[in-house]
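can u do me a favor
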């Protein structure tokens, strides 16, 4: 195994994360271990948030509402799509980041509990995200379309990028921005990070291949499952793409940023030195992760026209 020069605090985060891995490699065992790990890293929600679960377009969602009155133009909103390789994760696994965004930014956050593979391979989860986005245009909240954007990490970053491509292709209104956190976008094995970080902590190259296989099932990859396969990157929303240095998916994000920039799309690339895949929940424990959060919050505050 290669040696990755992680800080002491990042190494402690990695060790705590992998301590939840158990001998049960079944799908049920993997999901149980992941959920237990997520609970161990989930702090109490900030005071004052109103949080409610309900169904929208037949999909479970969770709304996080701060104690602020709605502005005349409607609420600013972040639609958040969780990571987990399209295979694990739910409304609880990413409660930590959704609650922080809602509380710190003072905006509505909608988390989407899309269907998971392999029981529901592509395009099921993708269609769920698209259905929720479309349903939000007519209710149950009054949103400001100029200040409603999509964000996601890992597989959720993939789904956020795919959502933007699908809406553009259909000629529908686009998110105000797309925020992609160490996204998996379908880069090929020739990308340097695939070999440089083949056995990186928390996500290996083999893990990437396994998750892709489970997500795609019998289908061939396409632009809406693997956005780097798109032939046209023009006309897409502004993007913040944050990548982790020690991550086989690092160059997926780097390459996507290059494609967007070449197509004339406003894009900011955050190269997270010392970061590993899945580190977002190391908030308050790892200085490098805190810096990532501050970048995310700053970008979102600007695009949502809110104050930190």
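np, heres the sequence
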């Amino acid at each position: 195994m290669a040696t990755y020069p992680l800080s002491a605090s990042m190494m402690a985060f990695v060790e705590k994360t992998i301590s939840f891995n158990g001998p049960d490699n079944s799908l049920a065992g993997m999901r149980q271990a992941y959920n237990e790990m997520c609970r161990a890293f989930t702090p109490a929600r900030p005071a004052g948030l109103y949080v409610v679960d309900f169904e929208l377009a037949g999909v479970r969602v969770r709304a996080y509402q701060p104690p602020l009155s709605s502005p005349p133009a409607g609420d600013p909103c972040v639609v958040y799509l969780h990571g987990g390789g399209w295979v694990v994760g739910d409304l609880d696994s990413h409660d930590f980041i959704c609650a922080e965004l809602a509380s710190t930014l003072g905006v509505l956050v909608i988390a989407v509990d899309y269907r998971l593979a392999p029981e529901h391979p592509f395009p099921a989860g993708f269609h769920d995200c698209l259905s929720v986005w479309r349903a939000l245009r007519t209710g149950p909240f009054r949103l400001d379309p100029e200040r409603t954007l999509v964000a996601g990490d890992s597989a959720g970053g993939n789904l956020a990028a795919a959502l933007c491509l699908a809406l553009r292709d259909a000629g529908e209104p686009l998110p105000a921005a797309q925020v992609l956190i160490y996204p998996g976008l379908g880069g090929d094995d020739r990308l340097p990070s695939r070999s440089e970080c083949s056995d990186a902590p928390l996500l290996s190259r083999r893990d990437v291949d396994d998750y892709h296989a489970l997500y795609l099932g019998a289908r061939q990859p396409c632009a809406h499952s693997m956005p780097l396969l798109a032939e046209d990157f023009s006309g897409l929303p502004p993007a913040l793409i944050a990548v982790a240095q020690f991550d086989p998916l690092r160059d997926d994000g780097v390459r996507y940023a290059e494609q967007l920039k070449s197509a004339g799309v406003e894009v900011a690339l955050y190269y997270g030195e010392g970061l590993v895949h899945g580190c977002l929940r190391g908030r308050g424990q790892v200085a490098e992760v805190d810096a990532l959060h501050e970048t995310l919050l700053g970008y979102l505050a600007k695009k949502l026209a809110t104050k930190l």
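The chain has a mean pLDDT of 96. hope that helps!!
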